[in-house]
Amino acid sequence: RKIVSVIGTRPQYVKAAAVSRELRKQFHEVLVDTGQHYDYKMAGVFFEELELPRPDYNLGVGSGTHGKQTAAMISGLEELLIKECPDGVLVYGDTNSTLAGALVASKLHIPLFHIEAGLRSFNPKMPEEINRKLTDHISDVLFAPTDTAVRNLRSEGITRNVLQVGDVMLDAVNYYWSRSKDAYTPETFGLVREEYYLATIHRAENTDDPIRLKAIVEAFIKLETPLLLPLHPRTLNRLQTMGLAAELAQSPHIRLIEPVSYLAMLQLERHAKGIITDSGGVQKEAYFAGVPCFTLRSETEWTETLSGGWNVLVDPLRDDLSAIVARSGIPAVKSDVYGDGRATRDIVDHMLEWYEGYPLSKQVS
Ligand code: UD1
Ligand code: UDP
After folding, report:
1. ipTM for the complex?
2. What is its EC number (predicted)?
3. What angle do CA 26, 29, 30 make, to 5 degrees?
4. Residues 110-131: pLDDT tens digits?
5. Which pTM was predicted?
6. Is the dihedral of CA 235, 240, 244, 248 positive or negative?
7. Is the C-beta atom of 131 inside 6 A of ligand 2?
């Protein structure tokens, strides 16, 4: 059977690297990259380093407004899916690439599988919240990572073919961990273990609001501890436009660098004193690594990371990041809420079952 997987952004390359390996044991996968991310450090490096198969198609959509970007993806994907005539379409997460893949598959009546279903921030202004809700409501099979995700779906009336499988990013960490250890150390970046913070920022709510972005920059400057900041191109653009990049770069404890590769990121995360982020994936990776996380947002979809104090929500406009970071310690307990690292295998097994018409095991009703 033929499955078209639609990806297009950095976190989707990581997730697909884990899933694709399992999927290809049972299905013929046609990999489609929408080209939403295109810089080598946001896209190409992941294909090389993670040995993600070369995409069969790259739609080359690139950046744009939500409307233009999503429309170009829809148009490209429609043509492609009509030509390829697959038995299913697989989408990941909550980006514009996810929504485009979901809409086209659904309108062409091609079975739609959604990995990372059921996540909710309950913030209707977040573009990702719109993408994930719409995708969940038109998916045929929903792979939910956590209990919370299953509950969120149930509260919206989605109970059919919802399968709790754990988080595919945990499978990715487990698979790539030893390679990452062999390839990088914090010293590669001139850092001393446990003596630096690692930060990533890219959420629209932080980058596109000049007051918020300035508050984040000021909080970073006040931190006065070595801080490595691999900058998403969106953030670099905004900082430059606002004249804040120079201010950051002049602070002796801050190092601005280009986005790093996944294998480098895993080591930088593991040996950090703490991680400051607004990324969904990085919040989870901090939890997997057992490193305290400070999330510069008002809410998180990954609510499990908050329990025990592993992750703390910090409002850059109201809260004092340095004081919160200084007060934090390593919490005592951590649970395996994100599964047992078998999510990718479970997903492929359930997909096989679904095609065979068996009642899906582990189904939540
Ligand atoms: C997108 C996703 C977000 C995800 C993030 C992962 C949507 C709505 N957002 O956000 O959910 O968390 O990816 O990183 O789908 N740019 C480049 N080079 C690139 C990619 C982007 O320069 O290779 C710059 C462009 O100026 C672009 C901006 O970054 O306009 C934003 O890129 P876009 O893909 O629209 O959204 P992200 O912020 O990356
Ligand atoms: N990541 C990376 N290099 C970086 C920043 C992030 O490899 O410089 C990885 C990170 O380890 C995680 C994924 O990218 O696996 C998260 O992607 P991102 O933060 O862009 O998106 P989100 O998860 O918020 O959607």
Report:
1. 0.99
2. 5.1.3.14
3. 170
4. 999 999 999 999 999 999 999 9
5. 0.97
6. positive
7. no
